[in-house]
Specification:
Helix content is 43%, strand content 17%. The protein is built from 6 helices and 5 strands, in the order ααααβαβαβββ. It has helices at 2-16, 20-24, 30-43, 49-59, 80-90, 108-113, and strands at residues 66-70, 95-97, 116-120, 130-135, 138-142. The chain is elongated and about 85 Å long.
Protein backbone atom coordinates (compact mmCIF):
# COMPACT_ATOMS: atom_id res chain seq x y z
CA UNK A 1 0.00 0.00 0.00
CA UNK A 2 2.84 2.39 0.87
CA UNK A 3 4.40 1.86 -2.55
CA UNK A 4 1.16 2.74 -4.31
CA UNK A 5 0.75 5.92 -2.25
CA UNK A 6 4.39 6.89 -2.91
CA UNK A 7 3.94 6.22 -6.63
CA UNK A 8 0.71 8.24 -6.72
CA UNK A 9 2.39 11.17 -4.92
CA UNK A 10 5.35 10.97 -7.30
CA UNK A 11 3.02 11.07 -10.34
CA UNK A 12 1.07 14.00 -8.87
CA UNK A 13 4.30 15.95 -8.22
CA UNK A 14 5.64 15.15 -11.70
CA UNK A 15 2.43 16.29 -13.42
CA UNK A 16 2.16 19.41 -11.24
CA UNK A 17 5.71 20.45 -12.15
CA UNK A 18 5.01 20.53 -15.90
CA UNK A 19 5.12 24.10 -17.22
CA UNK A 20 2.28 24.62 -19.74
CA UNK A 21 4.30 27.27 -21.56
CA UNK A 22 7.10 24.81 -22.20
CA UNK A 23 4.61 22.26 -23.50
CA UNK A 24 3.12 24.82 -25.91
CA UNK A 25 6.48 26.19 -27.08
CA UNK A 26 7.08 23.67 -29.89
CA UNK A 27 3.71 24.66 -31.37
CA UNK A 28 4.32 28.43 -31.16
CA UNK A 29 5.24 30.71 -34.06
CA UNK A 30 8.78 31.52 -32.87
CA UNK A 31 9.33 34.46 -35.26
CA UNK A 32 6.21 36.16 -33.95
CA UNK A 33 7.23 35.43 -30.34
CA UNK A 34 10.74 36.78 -30.97
CA UNK A 35 9.35 40.02 -32.45
CA UNK A 36 7.03 40.41 -29.49
CA UNK A 37 9.80 39.83 -26.92
CA UNK A 38 12.41 42.04 -28.61
CA UNK A 39 10.33 44.88 -30.04
CA UNK A 40 6.78 45.20 -28.76
CA UNK A 41 7.06 44.10 -25.13
CA UNK A 42 10.08 46.20 -24.09
CA UNK A 43 8.54 49.40 -25.51
CA UNK A 44 4.95 48.75 -24.40
CA UNK A 45 2.79 51.76 -25.28
CA UNK A 46 5.76 53.62 -26.78
CA UNK A 47 6.03 51.14 -29.65
CA UNK A 48 6.73 51.69 -32.56
CA UNK A 49 7.42 55.44 -32.44
CA UNK A 50 9.99 55.67 -29.63
CA UNK A 51 12.33 52.93 -30.94
CA UNK A 52 12.03 54.38 -34.46
CA UNK A 53 12.87 57.84 -33.08
CA UNK A 54 15.95 56.47 -31.31
CA UNK A 55 17.04 54.76 -34.54
CA UNK A 56 16.76 58.13 -36.29
CA UNK A 57 18.78 59.82 -33.56
CA UNK A 58 21.48 57.17 -33.94
CA UNK A 59 21.57 57.68 -37.71
CA UNK A 60 22.03 61.45 -37.31
CA UNK A 61 24.72 61.39 -34.61
CA UNK A 62 28.24 60.01 -34.37
CA UNK A 63 30.03 57.78 -31.90
CA UNK A 64 31.21 59.82 -28.92
CA UNK A 65 28.49 62.48 -29.24
CA UNK A 66 26.74 63.62 -26.07
CA UNK A 67 22.94 63.47 -26.18
CA UNK A 68 20.49 64.71 -23.55
CA UNK A 69 16.99 63.25 -23.55
CA UNK A 70 13.63 64.94 -23.05
CA UNK A 71 10.43 62.86 -23.00
CA UNK A 72 6.93 63.35 -21.57
CA UNK A 73 6.78 62.84 -17.83
CA UNK A 74 10.21 64.07 -16.80
CA UNK A 75 10.01 62.12 -13.53
CA UNK A 76 12.31 59.17 -12.94
CA UNK A 77 9.72 56.62 -11.86
CA UNK A 78 7.04 57.82 -14.29
CA UNK A 79 8.75 57.08 -17.59
CA UNK A 80 12.06 58.90 -17.62
CA UNK A 81 14.14 55.99 -16.31
CA UNK A 82 12.69 53.71 -18.97
CA UNK A 83 13.28 56.27 -21.75
CA UNK A 84 16.82 56.94 -20.54
CA UNK A 85 17.89 53.30 -20.29
CA UNK A 86 16.23 52.43 -23.61
CA UNK A 87 18.04 55.34 -25.26
CA UNK A 88 21.34 54.18 -23.75
CA UNK A 89 20.73 50.78 -25.36
CA UNK A 90 19.82 52.15 -28.80
CA UNK A 91 22.51 54.83 -28.79
CA UNK A 92 25.47 52.61 -27.95
CA UNK A 93 28.74 54.45 -28.51
CA UNK A 94 27.19 57.80 -27.67
CA UNK A 95 26.97 59.31 -24.20
CA UNK A 96 23.34 59.68 -23.18
CA UNK A 97 23.11 62.30 -20.47
CA UNK A 98 20.17 62.12 -18.05
CA UNK A 99 18.32 65.32 -17.28
CA UNK A 100 16.61 63.85 -14.20
CA UNK A 101 18.01 61.93 -11.23
CA UNK A 102 16.19 59.07 -9.45
CA UNK A 103 15.03 61.59 -6.81
CA UNK A 104 13.54 63.72 -9.68
CA UNK A 105 16.09 66.50 -9.25
CA UNK A 106 16.89 68.15 -12.58
CA UNK A 107 20.40 68.02 -14.04
CA UNK A 108 20.50 71.28 -16.00
CA UNK A 109 24.27 71.05 -16.42
CA UNK A 110 23.78 67.97 -18.61
CA UNK A 111 21.50 69.94 -20.92
CA UNK A 112 24.17 72.61 -21.33
CA UNK A 113 26.90 69.98 -21.80
CA UNK A 114 25.08 67.97 -24.49
CA UNK A 115 25.93 68.49 -28.15
CA UNK A 116 22.46 67.15 -29.06
CA UNK A 117 19.11 67.14 -27.30
CA UNK A 118 16.71 64.37 -28.35
CA UNK A 119 13.15 65.52 -27.68
CA UNK A 120 10.41 62.90 -28.07
CA UNK A 121 6.69 63.75 -27.80
CA UNK A 122 7.47 66.98 -25.99
CA UNK A 123 8.02 70.59 -26.92
CA UNK A 124 11.24 72.50 -26.32
CA UNK A 125 12.10 76.03 -27.38
CA UNK A 126 15.83 76.77 -27.44
CA UNK A 127 17.14 79.60 -29.59
CA UNK A 128 20.75 78.37 -29.15
CA UNK A 129 20.03 75.07 -30.90
CA UNK A 130 18.83 74.23 -34.40
CA UNK A 131 16.87 71.24 -35.69
CA UNK A 132 19.29 68.56 -36.96
CA UNK A 133 16.58 65.99 -37.70
CA UNK A 134 12.87 65.51 -37.15
CA UNK A 135 10.74 62.36 -37.25
CA UNK A 136 8.67 59.76 -35.38
CA UNK A 137 7.04 62.34 -33.06
CA UNK A 138 10.41 63.79 -32.07
CA UNK A 139 13.13 66.24 -32.93
CA UNK A 140 16.90 66.21 -32.57
CA UNK A 141 18.33 69.60 -31.64
CA UNK A 142 22.01 70.41 -32.20
CA UNK A 143 24.13 73.06 -30.54
Amino acid sequence: MRRRIALALFVILAVASIDPIMVALPFTNLKKLQRFLTEVRPDREWYPEYPAFLEGVREHTQRGDTIALIVPGMRWDYGYSYAYYRASYFLTGREVLPLVRPDDAQLRQNYARAKYVAVWSARVVDSKRHVAWEGHRGVLLER
